[in-house]
Backbone:
C-alpha cells in the first residue's frame, strides 16, 4: 500500500499521516513514513518528539554533504539516514530547507 | 514600512497580513498588499472574497536565451498601477495567483514576473512612500529563496503548537540572514498567559505581541470574510491595531498626521 497525504497548510496533513502510519504498523504492516515537506514535522506526529524532530538529518542534505561515495540504493538510504519511530515505523526525512539560498531543494 | 508575513500553514498569516494592511491604510498610509502564494488567500482576508487571478500572467516573456524577463515597459510601478486591484480601505492588492492555462509555461511566466516585480519594488521611486505588506506561502521556501527582498520586518506568525513553533524558529533563522532584516514573532490564537510563556520559551525569543484566540476570527474564516468586516471590534482586531501602531513606532515612521487612527488609544 502506498499513500500520499496532501492539503492546505494547517489542515492536519501531518497529524493524519503520522497517525495512519502508526495505525498500519500496529496492524502488522512494515511502514516507511516519508516526510517530503521542506519544513519537515512528521516526526512530531509520529511521536519522535519535537526537539528530536528538529535535529533529524534529511537524506538529501546528508547525501550532498561530504566527499564519501554515497548510498545508491533506496534500502541503503532508508537504513543509513532513517530514524526509528514508535510502533516500528521507519521515518525518512527527504529534504529540508534550513538556510537562505539553499540551491535546488 | 515594508513587512513580510511568514509562518507555518494555518498559523493565520493571511489574516494578519490582510488585517494589518487595512489597518495601516486607515492610519493614512498608501498600502500595497502582496500575495506571493500560488494558492492565493490574502484577497479573502482583505475583504475581496476568493480571487484566484494570476495578475502578472502576461507581464513576462522569454528572452533570446530562454530566460524570463518582464516585458518592455513593465516595471514594478507599472505592474502595481496596471495589474493590481483595489481592496477595501484603499489597499492595492497584487497577487501571484493561479494561471488559468494549464502547463508549466504560464506558471513559470507568472512566477518570474511576480518574483522580478518583488525584487524591483524597493528601488522604485514612485512607490517609495508606500507601505508594503507581503503574505508569503507556508513554510521556509520563499524566505530562503528571497521572495521578499523589500521586507525590513519579517513577521513570523506562530500559534501555540510545537509544529508551529519549530517552523517559526526555522523560518526566523532563514529570514535573519537577510540584510538589515528584523525578525518579529507574533503569537496568534493565544488562549492565555501560559500559552504566551510556553511559546516564548520554546522560541527562545520574545514576542512582538499576542493575538488572542477569537471565535470571530474562526467564523470569519469559515464565511470567507475579512475579520475586519465580520468583527471590527473583536479582541483579535484590537490586538492587531496595537501591532500596527507598534510597527509604526519600530520602523521610525510614526503615525501619519491628520489620519483617522482607530488603533490609537
Residues:
Amino acid at each position: 500500500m502506498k499513500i500520499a497525504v496532501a492539503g492546505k497548510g494547517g489542515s492536519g496533513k501531518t497529524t493524519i499521516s503520522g497517525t495512519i502510519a502508526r495505525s498500519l504498523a500496529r496492524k502488522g504492516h512494515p511502514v516507511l513514513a516519508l516526510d517530503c515537506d521542506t519544513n519537515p514535522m512528521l516526526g512530531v506526529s509520529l511521536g519522535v518528539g519535537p526537539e528530536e524532530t528538529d535535529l533529524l538529518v534529511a537524506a538529501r542534505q546528508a547525501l550532498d554533504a561530504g566527499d564519501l561515495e554515497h548510498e545508491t540504493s533506496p534500502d541503503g538510504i532508508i537504513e543509513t539516514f532513517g530514524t526509528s519511530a514508535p510502533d516500528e515505523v521507519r521515518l525518512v526525512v527527504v529534504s529540508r530547507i534550513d538556510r537562505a539560498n539553499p540551491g535546488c531543494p | 514600512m515594508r513587512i513580510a508575513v511568514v509562518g507555518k500553514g494555518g498559523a493565520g498569516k493571511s489574516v494578519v497580513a490582510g488585517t494589518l494592511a487595512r489597518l495601516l491604510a486607515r492610519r493614512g498610509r498608501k498600502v500595497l498588499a502582496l500575495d506571493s502564494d500560488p494558492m492565493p488567500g490574502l484577497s479573502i482576508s482583505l475583504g475581496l472574497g476568493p480571487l484566484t487571478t494570476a495578475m502578472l500572467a502576461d507581464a513576462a516573456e522569454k528572452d533570446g536565451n530562454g530566460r524570463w524577463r518582464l516585458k518592455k515597459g513593465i516595471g514594478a510601478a507599472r505592474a502595481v498601477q496596471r495589474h493590481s486591484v483595489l481592496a477595501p480601505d484603499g489597499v492595492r492588492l497584487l497577487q501571484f495567483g493561479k494561471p488559468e492555462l494549464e502547463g508549466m509555461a504560464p506558471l513559470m511566466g507568472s512566477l518570474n514576473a511576480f518574483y522580478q516585480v518583488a525584487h524591483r519594488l524597493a528601488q522604485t521611486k514612485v512607490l517609495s512612500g508606500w507601505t508594503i505588506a507581503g503574505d508569503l506561502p507556508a513554510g521556509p521556501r520563499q524566505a530562503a529563496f528571497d521572495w521578499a527582498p523589500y521586507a525590513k520586518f519579517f513577521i513570523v506568525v506562530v500559534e501555540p503548537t510545537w509544529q508551529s513553533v519549530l517552523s517559526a524558529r526555522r523560518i526566523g533563522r532563514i529570514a535573519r540572514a537577510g540584510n538589515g532584516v528584523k525578525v518579529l514573532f507574533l503569537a496568534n490564537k493565544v488562549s492565555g498567559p501560559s500559552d504566551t510563556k510556553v511559546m516564548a520559551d520554546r522560541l527562545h525569543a520574545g514576542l512582538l505581541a499576542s493575538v488572542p484566540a477569537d471565535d470571530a476570527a474562526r467564523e470569519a474564516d469559515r464565511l470567507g470574510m475579512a475579520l475586519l468586516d465580520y468583527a471590527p471590534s473583536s479582541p483579535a482586531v484590537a490586538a492587531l491595531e496595537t501591532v500596527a501602531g507598534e510597527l509604526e513606532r519600530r520602523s521610525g515612521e510614526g503615525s501619519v498626521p491628520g489620519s483617522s487612527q482607530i488603533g490609537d488609544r
Remarks:
- The interface with chain B takes residues 8-11, 14, 37-39, 41, 44-45, 50, 53-54, 97-102, 105 of chain A (CB under 8 Å).
- Chain A has a mean pLDDT of 91.
